[in-house]
Amino acid sequence: MKRVVVIGAGYAGLAAADALRAGGAEVTVLEARDRVGGRVWSVPFGDRGAIVERGAEFILPGYEVMEGMAERFGIPLVLKGTPYGRRIPIGEEAVAPEELQRAFELINGEVPGDPGSVAEAIDALELGPELSAVIRTRVQISTGHPAEDLELQVLERGASAFGDFDNYTLEGGNMRLADALAADLGGALHLSSPVRAVRWSDDAVTVVTDAGEVEAETAVIAAPASVLGEIDFEPALSGPTAEALAAVRYGHNAKLFVEMLAPAPPSAILSVAGHFWSYTQLGADGEPSPFAVGYAGTLPVIESLTGGGGHERWVEALVELRSDLELDPDPAHALLSTWHDDPWVRGAYSAGSLSEPLREDEMERPIGPLFFAGEHTAREWHGLMEGALRSGQRAAAQVLEAG
Question: How many whole angstroms separate alpha carbon 336 and alpha carbon 348?
Answer without folding.
Answer: 14
